[in-house]
Amino acid sequence: MRARATSVVASAVLYSAHAVLTRGRKLFSNGNVFVNGRNYGVARYVRSPASKGQVAHLVAGWKQDANAAASMLLSTNDLYAYMGHEPSWWSAVSTPDADYTMLPDTVGGEAAVPYWRDVCMALCFRRHDDDVEVIEVDLRLGLYHGSDPQANPSRCSCYAYDDLAKVDRNDSSSLPSHSAPNDLILTSFLRSASLVNHYRGKNAVDGGLLYRQYINTYAVHRDDWDELFVEAQQSTIFHKQAFETEYAPDLAALAADAASGNTYYNETEINDLNACLRECAAHSGVEPALTARMNASSMIYDAEYLHCICTTTNWLDLAHDDEIIHVPARPELRTYRIKFCPGVAGGSSRSVVYRKNVKGANAVCMGMPVRRSFFEQP
209-236: per-residue pLDDT in tens? Predict the structure, then answer.
């Protein structure tokens, strides 16, 4: 910082300042989500294109006040981060020459920071779709207690961007904004955060580690989904694979979904993906099919058997994690997340269309309105 005075003024004061918020460059996540599966038959990270996104680092060492930012907090989730420690149960189940570092989630040191950043971001998108704009990843507990993370989990907090006037309010009476947060907005978000203790580890398991570097806040944005504009409906249906190929709900889960009335289309002889999407966007003009289409959440399409299923159940949701199976014999089987946007033409992520008197995941659509019953947020 440089300054040069041209005259002497008794009341002049020179201040030195340094930036608290310095947004990092944009990076791309892998979108992997952990799936236990039916009877723990999967128990691995699975690629989820619907959960991929972009991330930029904001600050390290600052902890958000969950009460002050309650209107923005979507959820706080446990992360079972071993942080390079040997799991407490490892010696009881392993052979003497086995290497525990081959297990998922055992990455430690500085490499653990981007690893858990990506896990947290995919988890937030999995739970809250594109409402998520900021995440906070706190790995400090794992630095010392990493051998037993189930008892001492790290934390992943998902935040939406909300109106600045609501930053200090403890309610969530309105929908989150989907405007891309700029640096001023993010600085205002961080005004309720506080700098954590400048502690450096002194024990054998965490010696020399600066704990402040293991709590980080990031700006995130979910990747846009693919889209199909259905001319007959003058509407768009957005879609992206929920899991990599060959992963889908098992037959028992599909049967229960149909019995509950959530499945509103289940037919064969559907020749391609777009044809299946058009069926998910179609309706008979009467209830319950009309409402079901408006709340469409998932689609399953098997190109080998030409089988198409549309449902209001979100099969990517954690509540259905134990109903997912891997079917290697079905290489054309794909599970999609879908979103029906009536009266919206996609193709623009810079404008937002809101459905009147509707809340929830399907209340907001990226694109341009094609009917006067919608309004647009630039």
Answer: 899 999 999 999 999 999 999 998 889 9
Contact 324, 42 (CB under 8 A): yes
Q: Which residues pair with 301 in a beta bridge?
A: 308, 334
* Residue 210 three-state SS: strand
Digit-coded pLDDT (tens) for 257-291:
999 999 999 999 999 999 999 999 987 666 777 77
140: phi then psi, degrees, rounded to nearest 5: -65, -40
pLDDT of residue 242: 97
Residue 159 bridge partners (DSSP): 73, 134
Give the whole-angstrom CA distance, residue 28 versus residue 168: 31
Q: Which residues contact 63 (CB under 8 A, 6 or more apart)?
A: 136, 138, 193, 194, 195, 196, 215
The C-alpha atoms of residue 134 and residue 107 are separated, in whole angstroms, by: 24
Rounded CA gap, 137 and 55, in Å?
13
What's the burial of 360, exposed, middle or buried (CB within 10 Å: 0-12/13-18/19+)?
Answer: exposed
- DSSP per residue, 29-42: ---EEEE--GGGS-
Question: Cα dihedral angle (179, 180, 184, 189), rounded to 10 degrees?
Answer: 80
What are the structural domains of the chain?
27-222 (no CATH), 226-377 (3.50.4.10)
Q: Which conformational region is residue 37 in: left (phi greater than 0), alpha (psi within -120 to 50 degrees), or beta?
A: left
- Let me know: does 364 contact 354? Beta carbons within 8 Å: yes
Cα separation, 27 vs 127, in Å, equals 21
| Backbone phi and psi for residue 364, each to the nearest 5 degrees, phi listed first | -125, 135
11: left (phi over 0), alpha (psi -120 to 50) or beta: alpha
CB-based contact 321:36 (threshold 8 Å): yes
Residues 283, 284, 286, CA angle at the centre, nearest 5°?
110
